[in-house]
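Re: beginner question about structure tokens

> Can someone show what the tokenized structure looks like for a real chain? I only ever see the sequence side.

Sure, here's an example I had lying around. Input first:
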Amino acid sequence: MKTAEWLKKYGIVLKKSLGQVFLSDQRIAEKIALYVPHDSEVVEVGAGAGTLTEELARRVRKVIAVEIDRRLESLLKERLEPFSNVVIVFEDFLKLDLGEFREHVFVGNLPYHLGTRIIEKVLKETSTPLAIFMLQKEVAQRITARPGSKSYGSFSVFVQSVCDVDVLFHVSPSHFLPNPRVESTVIRLKPVRSLPEDDFERFVRKCFSNRRKKLVNSAGLSEEILKNLGIPSNARAEDLSVKDYKKLFEVVREWRKTSTT
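And the corresponding structure tokens:
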């Protein structure tokens, strides 16, 4: 039975307030699941009507399907009944304690308005080896953006400071219920570096707080500090790579320590 038929059977009307745009194409779900190793224990962020959950259950060792909307309980229990390796958890993912899922793989078709918050939570609260998320294309572009591009910002630096990031494929609106007005993109995050400290995040956000200004003005940095790192004095926030930000942060931190002693 197709996803639209499952929703009709249970009389479920999707809620805009929850950002419910459900994946309806089983072929796309299968394509996403193929990127997840067979022996994985997976936390699915937002089970929805179970389209992706089904494909994950066919492939991996175990699926913890997290869903906020209890109206979907009967639907999910019936649709996923054939799979003994699925556990359904009705909870707001952003409020969920991820302590017992620290080593799990995270997968999901994320609500467009919550994508960055969910990714931040996963990276900060777990030691996941892999996350595969479908997001609004614009958000995916921000995450994967390179220095010098309009999409490159503080969240790009945060994610890329921790993860190797890849765009896997794009998904057109016709594969969802209801059809959104924007395209979606599936990305892969592989955390390979330690999580940066909070001060680093605050420093990068300050640098991007007025991206039209030069760093010497927006972040109060001296031209001498930039020059010593080989960074032009007229550089703006979007001109620096993740490595540049890490070096600059360490130099500025040491400079502040010595200037206050």
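Each token stands for a local structural state, so reading them left to right follows the chain. The chain is about 35% helix and 20% strand.
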